[in-house]
Amino acid sequence: MIEVRPNIEFKKELKKISKSSLNECMQCGNCSVVCSLAPDDRPFPRKEMIWAGWGMKDKLVGNTDIWLCHQCGDCSTHCPRGVNPSDVFSAIREISYQHYAKPKFLGKILNNPKWLPVAILIPVIIISLILFMAGTLQIPEGPVNYSKFFPHAWLNGSFSFLWFLTIILGIIGLRNFREDMKKQNPDVKPKGNFIKNLFSIRKEIILHSNFGSCSAQKTRKIAHFLVFYGFILLLFVTAFAIYAAVTHNYPLELTNPFKILGNVAAIMLFVGIGIMITNRIFNKKDFGNSTYTDWLFLISLFLLTISGVIVEAARFLNWQLAYHLYFFHLVCVWFIIIYLPYTKFGHLLFRVVAMVYAASIERRLK
Amino acid sequence: MDKKTGVYICSGCEIGKSIDIEKLSQVASEHNVAICKNHSSLCSVEGFDLINNDIENENLDRIVIAACSPRTKTEIFNFPENIILERTNLREQVAWCYEPGEEDTQMAAEDYLRMSITKVNNIEVPKPFIAENISSEILVVGGGITGITSAIEGAKAGYTVHLIEKEEKLGGWLNKLHKQIPYRAPYDTLTDPELNDRIKELGQYDNIKIYTSTTINRIDGQPGQFEVSLLVRQAGLQNGKEEKITVGSIVTSMGWNPYDASKLSHLGYGKSNVLSNVEFEELVKNNSVKALPKNILFIQCAGSRDKDHLPYCSNFCCGTSLKQAKYIRDLSPESNVFIVYKDIRTLGLYEEFYKEVQKDDQIFFTKGEIEEITEDNNNLKVNVKDTLLGEDISLSVDMIVLATGMVPAGTEDLNLNYRLGKGLPELKYDFSDSHFICFPYETRRTGIYAAGSLRAPMDIASSKEDATGAMLKAIQTIEATKRGEAVHPRSGDKSYPELYLDRCTDCKRCTEECPFGAYDENEKGTPLPNPNRCRRCGICVGSCPERVISFADYSINSVSAMIKSVEIPDEFEEKPRILVFVCENDAYPAFDMAGQKGLKYSPYIRVIPVRCIGSINKVWISDALSQGFDGILQIGCKPGDDYQCHFIHGSELTETRGENIQETLETMMLEPERIRTEFVEITDYYKIPNIINNYVEEIELIGPNPFKDM
């Protein structure tokens, strides 16, 4: 038994973000029936749609099922009232990033276009400050050598520290999220530990198996696959680069296998992001409403990739603008990895935590 | 005048291939008919002229056309009204369903021709009953939106309408409405009640006479001649003066009452701030509440679709709650409205209105069942189970509105001076509907039509439509009565029951069994017929043990003679004969359809169409058995609550009369299986061969009727 006190502000925010006329839901349940993932027991998304209509924020933020949805859009395609449950789910996830953001203001500035200049200024100022402290806040003379502009020790040291910080803050948010999920299932005691449960869902993550069951959007799986593995590959190459920088073998030659791997990863990201952007622009019918949060993440990932390639080229070609581009590239890196818990990239964390929790309470998808 | 019969046999449509026409013609000559001719296509211009010339030149007054089913080509075989026409169904029920050239096929054709010729010799052209001083005025009972609309429609068509209302002013429930649901696109704004507009419209017609504070003392008479005694009161006074009017037909629109909410204590009624939808509407209409509370809950289907209360859906309550939710939000932007429903039923384009209401962020919907309502400190705590929210919920609200349903007001106040009661007969759930499958607007009292929520639960828009339909029927009755014709379903039939009262024993069977109350009776119990109330079903013909009731073209004698005209082969020929009485409404067309589909069945049957199986008189059964028929099958429409019987309970009567018939069998020492009743719908044509063949087989097992050749 839950006591219902509608949170009308939340409902209005949800409608604004999702652009869904969610009130018009007639609670028929078609969405839950066509969903290829929803479990037989308390299937989504109908119950969530009704909670949304009733402004029940506590039930939606901190809800496991919201993150089990892979937003394939089948529910929206088959909704007789056109209320787009998948967009509502997406909006709830967006609100969740802000809700669990530590500190709160970062969640706010990264999910509202009004605050974009501030979001950009933060990395610009902090990176400039680090450069100032390193004593290299000027364009170096001679052939392009990025370590002259941003000494490797400073770069790796400061970014690693900031990333470590952001992950700590992210984990605090995720712990709150996990507590909320537990509160919503008071009768079920989670089984097993995090690692064991994470291992149990390895197939879904590695093979993207939940993506495959969607019928409305066929290209999504391949796009996400490319971006997912491209990004992991780049992380791996970056880790090696840091190691190489420490062992004074940096920069790498073009023929170095790691360098080749890095470039392949960049191509994978390009293609993947390209498909994603094309779908969002040209196939709105199947891919639903794209919000600022969606675009911010996609575009910054795109800019990160393209600026990375250009920066690489600039070094070989000795461009005068190489250092400016390098600075730009670092701001992009910041947007992706330092802002991780606050942007759509946060889905990486939230979704894994939710899937692990679902595994611990044995809530299995179809 | 001497009877002069012409017989015309068609050999088209495979009849010629199936039947020996020359041999068939001999049957006609055996019966001394004036003329017997064959033609390869009687329905051609040439064929028709052949018949028509004979009528003119030879002064024929009776014609038998042995060709296709009488249900077909009626526009071609259309002769002057003084000619008796009989159509022998050689095509659908002989040529198309029996093997061509066989002896049994030929025998069937010959018997059918004998029956037809016998029939025309035993019936007369009906002379219509035309009453004197038929009134073209129409009475509308009940001045709500249905009555008002009906009166306006009648007046528009040029008829004088008397509109009576028992309250001091017209309008009924419309007087109590705060707002009305929009009835046209874009369905987004509530409208003011339309009462004033409608009253203004009423005023535009001089031929509408309005009586308020008026009730009915008594209604006597029949369509065309209803004598109505009114009691017209002065506003506020109990006594009034009698006023008499004569009308031709009546539309009843007495409306509905809300379901008694005091029976809904399980939904909180009786606690403070729990109201019915009607009470809530009045509360807002009369401005008797300063500010609407913050949280208001609507409980849909309060006492509706509930076997312990009203088992049906009242149709208007969902729309009304949506309307009330909308004006609550307009009047009080702070308020939250919760709606707990079983299903939201907004039929047709009202879905648009539902969507419009849903757009409001502070109107919350869920399916659910109310589990418990508790009250503490002006606060109502409502527990709802079976919701779609995935779990039970609890709501704290300040006010509850119960969406209660409609109960028909009843028609006893008509005070009909009919043997069968003061009001209209009621069907399921007490609504005065007649026959919800085939005939909307009809009632079982000819010339009196029910409209609006008296007939079925409906909202304002549907009531207006209903009012128009019922008025049209009322007008049709007047016009048909002027011509001495029956109304639905035997529209245009000019025959009517004639009673030979000298032999009547005052047994009252006819007065009791007539589904339409056509017979009143005097103190002795002698029937007093009102021919204009009659629908010509012939159930009285079937009811009369003294056989004193007959129609000019459908009589005890004519059918008996047809039965006796069939040639029964002796028992050694091993050709049994089964007489099949077939209801003309559903079963006979089903036989025709079976023939049209080429379905084959036993040729041992002989079909006699009857107006209703309720019109089968016991004497026909004994005649058939004495004649030597081995079995008798009666096939009629489906009886029961959702009946198909065109005359309400004709099929049911075969059950109640069954005992008498079994007695007849016992006195004749015959097996009870020799009579069987079956029910079919018009679409059951494919069942006909099985019904026939199974029964024929059964009779063959029992063996021949011992009365053969006696």
Could you explain how this protein is built, in words?
The complex is a heterodimer of chains A (366) and B (710). Helices cover 67% and strands 1% of the residues of chain A. Chain A has helices at residues 8-18, 30-34, 46-53, 57-60, 65-68, 74-78, 85-99, 104-109, 116-134, 146-149, 152-184, 194-200, 202-207, 209-212, 219-246, 257-282, 284-287, 292-317, 322-338, 347-360, and one strand at residues 2-3. In chain A, helix 9 (116-134) crosses helix 19 and helix 12 (194-200) packs across helix 20 (347-360). Chain A is elongated and about 70 Å long. With 710 residues, chain B is α/β, with parallel strands linked by helices. Helix content of chain B is 29%, strand content 21%. Chain B starts with a strand and ends in an 8-residue tail after the last helix. The A-B interface holds A 1-6, 8, 11-12, 15, 21, 23-27, 29, 42, 46-47, 50-51, 53-56, 81 and B 336, 344, 354-355, 358-367, 383, 387-396.
Report the strand count of chain B: 30
Structural class category of chain B: alpha/beta
Could you tell me the strand content of chain A as a percent range? under 5%
Q: Distance between the terminal alpha carbons of chain B, to the nearest Å?
A: 36 Å
Judged by helices, strands and strand pairing, the structural class of chain A is mainly alpha
In percent terms, what proportion of residues of chain B is strand?
Answer: 15-25%
Low-confidence stretches of chain B: none
* CATH homologous superfamily grouping of the largest domain in chain B: FAD/NAD(P)-binding domain
Number of helices of chain B: 18
Strand runs of chain A, count: 1
Shape type of chain B: elongated
- Greatest interface and its participating residue counts: A-B, 27 and 25 residues
